[in-house]
Amino acid sequence: MSAGPESTHLSSLGRGDGLHQQVLASFPLCDITEEDLTQNPQFCKLLATLSQHVDRNGLTVPLKTELEKAEQKLQSQRRHWLRSESLHKGLQEMIQDHCIRKHHTTVPPDQTMFYETMEKCLLVAQCVRQLDPSSTTKQDQPNLLGLNPQLILELMPSEKNVQRMKQGLPRELEKHLKKKCLSLLSYYQPEWENESEGLKNSKLSHLSAQLDKEKKRAESLKETCRENTVLLQRQTQLYLSEVIKCIQLLQSLILDHRLRIQTDLDRKKLDYFEGKCELVLQKIKTEMVEIQLDTYTVDSISAHRKIREKLESELKASQVEKQSVELKLASFEILGKEFEALAEEYCRLRQEIEMNNWALKEFTQCKDK
User: Fold this and answer.
1) Model confidence pLDDT, tens digit, residues 264-311
2) Residues facing residue 54 across a β-bridge
3) Ranges assigned E (strand) in the chain
4) Residue 56, C-beta contacts closer than 8 angstroms, at least 6 positions apart
5) C-beta separation of 51 from 27 below 8 A
6) How many Cα atoms within 13 Å fall on the side-chain side of residue 136?
7) 121, 157 contact by CB (below 8 A)
8) Residue 56 gets which letter from DSSP?
9) Is 293 helix (H, G, I), strand (E, B) or coil?
């Protein structure tokens, strides 16, 4: 039976985003977002119902009423205290101004008597207030230095001087307050400082309303600043959550891309190392061939040297044999047929020597090349 009115009441609040915005506006101090309300619809309905019983600060209607009454009473007592405190401060300022003026100029005797009487009255009233126990203290509490308010009141100036001071006090106090208001007006609007007295008084009559207007404007700006701060915090949270989501998405994309290209990178690295290994092997082969060529060259030089030595030894042997044959020809020249046989032998040996000389010459030319 109770579900019907509640559902009707919730439907009147709005649906979807409208309900979320209304709940967020009803509880600006709560650290919740529209996403939280979307994910928890029952909690959103609870807050929507609760917003009809509490204000923006979370106070119930009866408690808010009592708080307003207490605030009104407090404001009344505060105004009374401020009035008394302002009057007391103003009288003290008047006495201080008189003391300063007395040191710089000549002051009439009646004015001196006026301020002295006022100063004594203020001192006596202050002492009486200090000696008068409040309602929260025990009445049998000993007085300070054995004094009581009656003894202090005996120090009051004469009744005649007091009455004279009371008669001139409103006029002097009005002059002092007007002087302070004009100083405040000059501070608030410096362009009015050189205006006439009538314009200043006219402007002064509107100063209170202007200050009250400025105060309300400052409070409105303060409230707007507070709402903007809450809104900024909420938007900052949303922004950070979106940034975190973007970072996570970017990390997943980077990981997928890295896994996708890792095979290509490994294949390229493998091809690079294979090519590098082939270059190293080719270089090693080239160096081995050069070493083999150097070894073959050394062996060839050694073989050529041996052949040359052999040919030179054969040449020397042939020359020795030639000399021997020539000696034989010289000794057997006178012989007939036997000489012809020796001549043929000589020709054969000479041809052999020429052949050896030619071989030696060719070998020497090949070596020089």
Assistant:
1) 777 777 777 778 778 877 877 777 777 766 666 666 667 667 777 777
2) 60
3) none
4) 26, 27, 28, 29
5) yes
6) 0
7) yes
8) T
9) helix
- Judge contact between 117 and 162, C-beta under 8 A: yes
pTM over 0.70: no
Helix, coil or strand: residue 284: helix
Q: What are phi and psi of 207, to 5 degrees?
A: -65, -40
Cβ neighbours around 138 below 10 Å, total: 6
Structure tokens at 81: 């205290």
198 alpha-carbon distance from chain centroid:
58
Cα gap 364→185, rounded to integer Å: 129
> Rounded to whole angstroms, how far apart are CA atoms 114 and 95?
10
Token pair belonging to 270: 């493998």
The span from the CA of 155 to the CA of 129, in Å, is 14
Using the Cα atoms of residue 312, residue 317, residue 322 and residue 327 in order, give the sign of their dihedral: positive
Token pair belonging to 342: 């020796």
Instruction: Write out pLDDT tens, residues 316-350.
Output: 777 777 777 667 666 655 555 666 666 677 777 77
Query: Per-residue pLDDT tens for 223-259?
Result: 999 889 988 988 898 899 899 999 998 888 888 777 7
> Are the C-beta atoms of 169 and 111 separated by less than 8 Å?
no
